[in-house]
Design goal:
The complex is a heterodimer of chains A (173) and B (181). Chain A is of the alpha/beta class. Chain A is built from four helices and five strands. About 5% of the residues of chain A have low confidence.
Chain lengths: 173, 181
């Protein structure tokens, strides 16, 4: 009985160590962040790809909502907002649609494996002067549940996380 | 004042009729008012939850979305673009619709085949600070185009010209055609 308690305690100790180590490693490996207090989101552009208006608006609005929800930025400015000019440390996010496949909600619900909606967006983060700070291709998709516009929410969550991870000052650092 | 009180009743009646006529005729020349349209605000309006149901009205040069908890007013002249489109949804949607997806013998999939068509109305507008906003509404089939016409008549801009319903074409096929690149 006593031996089994010891073994159990040892297992718990090993488990807690194994869970803690990756966190230390991630912290040590994370690149230095460029701390900014404000971000401005420009309207998503789709010059090469024919994107329906509702997808363009949904991408833009969901992106702003997710950035506000994620926190970290004191201000999330919209495209054309005059107040953004007064922000000293501002990062500007430009999104350009590089690929779009409108699936079918009905096909997804009936067959499960077909009807995927997918959007590929090239995200460019620049400073106020237009100097590129970070570029990344992100994808938003809906494969099973929800309407086609849900793909834009998937993209917005990924883009907000990317912005948060790279431009928001981590607490305690 | 005393002179006005001494007017004969037939003169008062004529004045009353003229005032009534002008009140009825005025809006058709200056500001066309639309009946309220039941819509679902998909995303965009600040202070309104996603997929909030409400009514959309175009009158007095404004687009008004009235929700149980909020009222949002956008000036038609502030609307940079208004575009209509179409979509479809399951006949049985919402929470009950989600539950039917787990119905036995794949009957949920079968129910997904029964769908209702929807119109979408997408607007882009600027706030007082110049910030660009967008909003998407869904509504019953055939309701979006009249709303768009009213908005354009009251000063809204559009990247796709308003279709003329007097041409005798089928409005359902017209709605299906409008796509913004």
């Amino acid at each position: 009985m006593k031996r089994s308690i010891q073994v159990f305690g040892l297992c718990l100790l090993l488990l807690s160590i194994s869970l803690a180590i990756p966190k230390w490693r991630v912290k040590a490996a994370s690149p230095p962040v460029s701390k900014v207090s404000a971000i401005q989101v420009l309207m998503i552009q789709s010059d090469e790809i024919k994107l329906p208006a509702e997808f363009q608006i949904s991408l833009y609005e969901n992106l702003i909502q997710q950035l506000e929800k994620k926190g970290g930025f004191q201000h999330v400015y919209r495209d054309g907002d005059k107040n953004a000019a007064g922000a000293s440390d501002l990062v500007v996010l430009r999104g350009t649609v590089r690929g779009f496949k409108k699936g079918s909600e009905m096909a997804r619900q009936v067959t499960t494996v077909t009807g995927k909606t997918s959007i590929d967006v090239h995200c460019q983060f620049t400073d106020k002067d237009g100097k590129s700070l970070l570029e990344h291709d992100l994808n938003g998709k809906v494969m099973f549940f929800g309407g086609n516009l849900r793909a834009t929410l998937d993209f917005a969550k990924k883009a907000a996380k990317l912005a948060h991870d790279n431009f928001v000052a981590k607490s305690g650092s | 004042m005393e002179a006005a009180m001494r007017w004969p009743s037939w003169k008062v009646s004529i004045v009353f009729l003229v005032l009534l006529f002008s009140a009825l005729a005025g809006p058709s020349f200056a500001q066309q008012a639309a009946d309220s349209v039941n819509v679902v605000q998909v995303v965009g309006l600040s202070g309104v939850k996603e997929h909030a149901k409400g009514t959309l009205t175009v009158e007095n040069g404004n687009l008004q979305f009235v929700h149980s908890k909020a009222q949002v007013v956008v000036a038609a002249t502030a609307i940079q673009d208004v575009v209509t489109g179409n979509d479809s949804q399951r006949m049985i949607h919402g929470f009950v619709g989600t539950l039917t997806m787990f119905a036995p013998y794949e009957s949920g999939r079968f129910l997904s085949l029964f769908r209702s068509k929807l119109d979408t109305l997408t607007i882009k507008y600027h706030d007082s600070d110049g910030g660009l906003h967008g909003a998407i509404f869904t509504m019953a089939m055939g309701k979006a185009e009249p709303l768009k016409k009213l908005l354009v008549a009251q000063g809204a801009h559009t990247s796709i010209p308003v279709q003329d319903s007097s041409s005798g074409s089928n409005p359902k096929t017209d709605l299906a055609k409008e796509q913004k690149p």
